[in-house]
Amino acid sequence: MIKIYHNNRCSKSRLGVALLEESGKEFEVVKYLENIPSEKELKEIIKLLKIAPIELVRKNEKVWKEEFKGKELSDAEIISAMVQNPKLIERPIIINGNKAVIGRPTEKILEII
To answer: What is the pTM of this model?
Structure first.
């Protein structure tokens, strides 16, 4: 089953959901601001994305700039920051089996569905 980590306030995330709807494939929507991924889940997502934790961080968010920018953080500290402040998680994230992409640009979603 395809899963999309979604924030309805984000236009790219809404485009991702629309693309999945148009595909006709079944998918699950995870509203990650309400159902915050655990550290374990985030580690699994990062592994599927084949990126470093810092690459999943929205660095223009106010909380990042005020609390974390310029600090030397370990991967574990970055993951913890995303769990404590889920707004920091880049979106949308689409997972299909053992493949995952960040849907920016939206067309990247087509690579895994």
So the answer is: 0.94
